Amino acid sequence: MTLALDGTDRRILHLLQTDGKASIQEIAGQVALSTSPCWRRIKRMEEAGLITGYTARLNPKLLGLHALAYVFVTLMDHREDTIAAFNRLVQTEDRITECASVTGESDYILKIAAKDPEDLEHFLMRGILASGLVRASHTNFVLRRTKPTSPWPIL
């Protein structure tokens, strides 16, 4: 079910995606509300599940993560237990920063961060591929991130 949003809600969402540390007072001032109605709107969107949390965006290179890759994965089969086991594996691996089930030749696409290419190879060979769940994989290294993070469009 989609939550009904008006223009003020949309402006609040845009501001929160741009600066999750903004205070209620700052947001309220920018959307021409007093703090109480602004807080109630944000609380309503949190309770409805539209706002799912607040995070800090980190610079991966300053964390020593110099290799980023998209790995396309094809499972051995499509049985429920295989899919469940793969999903559990994905959830337990911090190096996998995103996972999506996709259409096309592969079953999943993984976004994986590693220290360097050798570290990524080690992770793939001893983690993902050694699991016995994957029939094939195809890896694309990221050369440069030109739009690393962006807010969701508020249409």
UniProtKB/TrEMBL annotation:
Gene3D superfamilies, alphabetized: 3.30.70.920, Winged helix-like DNA-binding domain superfamily/Winged helix DNA-binding domain (1.10.10.10)
A GO cellular-component term linked to this record: cytosol
GO annotation (BP), single: regulation of DNA-templated transcription
Keyword Nucleotide-binding found: no
InterPro entries recorded: ArsR-like_HTH, AsnC-type_HTH_dom, Dimeric_a/b-barrel, Tscrpt_reg_AsnC-like, Tscrpt_reg_AsnC/Lrp_C, Tscrpt_reg_HTH_AsnC-type_CS, WH-like_DNA-bd_sf, WH_DNA-bd_sf
Signal peptide coordinates: none
GO molecular function, one term: sequence-specific DNA binding
UniProt xrefs under Pfam families: AsnC_trans_reg (PF01037), HTH_24 (PF13412)
HTH asnC-type domain mapped to chain residues: 5-66
Keywords: DNA-binding, Transcription, Transcription regulation
Listed CDD domains: HTH_ARSR
UniProt name for this protein: AsnC family protein
Species this chain originates from: Marinovum algicola
